[in-house]
């Protein structure tokens, strides 16, 4: 996993306005890809990935697929400029998956400790799964969180999504016991936590 984490982290910049040069990442299965920090100029590929993600797995995320489809180009640019730091796993110009780091609460009223960040919006296209892309994305987001001084990583997953929970546990995440019932559903979000350094271990 060392080649994944070192290369993935090398691509990222702590300056929001920077345009870092991508570094090649070799997954455990031998898939070569880039981890790309999404900028406002990437709004179309960001939109396509988000809409595909919400269409394929609508119950796995907070966002509304219909609302996402109705957004304008300017609204997508504004999302990219917001607090979430978006990353994409790319093979050439093809976007295979994405992840985001939220170094703040989900809402302005939701305050979090200064050393904490949320991992959100992990998704890999179904045809690209099984190649270690999720590990690469988690390594990249862990490096970014350390650069920001926020090593306490948390994520929420629907309790019915057992496949995702197994992935997180394989990576070293542990359930915190926190549980937040989902409005309009019979399930709840459950919280997992990890120290970012663990995602960068060999």
Description:
This protein has 202 residues and is of the alpha+beta class. The protein has a single domain, classed as Aminopeptidase, CATH 3.40.630. Helix content is 31%, strand content 28%. It has 6 helices and 8 strands. The protein has helices at 2-10, 43-56, 65-69, 73-81, 133-147, 162-171; strands at residues 24-26, 32-37, 85-91, 94-102, 116-124, 152-158, 174-181, 188-195. It has an 8-stranded mixed β-sheet, with helices on both faces. The longest helix has 15 residues, at 133-147. The radius of gyration is 16 Å and the shape is globular. The termini are close together.
How is this structure best summarized?
The protein is built from 6 helices and 8 strands, in the order αββαααβββαβαββ. The protein has helices at residues 2-10, 43-56, 65-69, 73-81, 133-147, 162-171; strands spanning 24-26, 32-37, 85-91, 94-102, 116-124, 152-158, 174-181, 188-195.
**CATH homologous superfamily placement:** Gcn5-related N-acetyltransferase (GNAT)
Q: Could you say which structural class the secondary elements and strand pairing correspond to?
A: alpha+beta
Helix segment tally: 6
Order of helices and strands: HEEHHHEEEHEHEE
Helix fraction?
A: 25-40%
Residue-averaged pLDDT: 88
What radius of gyration results from the CA coordinates?
A: 16 Å
> Any idea of the CATH class?
Alpha Beta
Distance between the termini: 5 Å
How many strand segments? 8
- Main β sheet profile: 8 strands, mixed
- State the CATH topology: Aminopeptidase
Spans where pLDDT lies below 50 across 5 or more residues: 1-21
Give the strand content: 25-35%
Shape: globular
**What's the domain count?**
1
- Supply the CATH architecture: 3-Layer(aba) Sandwich
| Strand numbers in spatial order across the main sheet | 1-2-3-4-5-6-8-7
């Amino acid at each position: 996993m060392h080649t994944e984490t070192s290369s993935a982290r090398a691509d990222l910049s702590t300056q929001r306005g920077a345009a870092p040069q991508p570094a090649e990442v070799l997954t455990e299965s031998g898939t070569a890809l880039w981890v790309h920090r999404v900028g406002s100029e990437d709004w179309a590929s960001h939109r396509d990935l988000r809409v595909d993600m919400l269409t394929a797995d609508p119950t796995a995320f907070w966002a509304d697929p219909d609302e996402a489809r109705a957004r304008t180009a300017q609204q997508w640019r504004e999302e990219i400029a917001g607090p979430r730091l978006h990353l994409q796993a790319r093979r050439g110009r093809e976007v295979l998956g994405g992840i985001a780091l939220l170094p703040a609460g989900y809402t302005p009223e939701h305050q979090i400790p200064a050393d904490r960040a949320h991992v959100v919006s992990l998704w890999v296209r179904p045809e690209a799964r099984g190649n270690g892309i999720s590990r690469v994305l988690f390594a990249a987001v862990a490096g970014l969180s350390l650069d920001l001084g926020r090593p306490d990583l948390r994520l929420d997953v629907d309790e019915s999504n057992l496949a995702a929970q197994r992935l997180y546990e394989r990576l070293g995440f542990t359930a915190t016991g926190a549980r937040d019932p989902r409005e309009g559903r019979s399930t709840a979000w459950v919280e997992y936590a990890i120290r970012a350094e663990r995602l960068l271990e060999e």
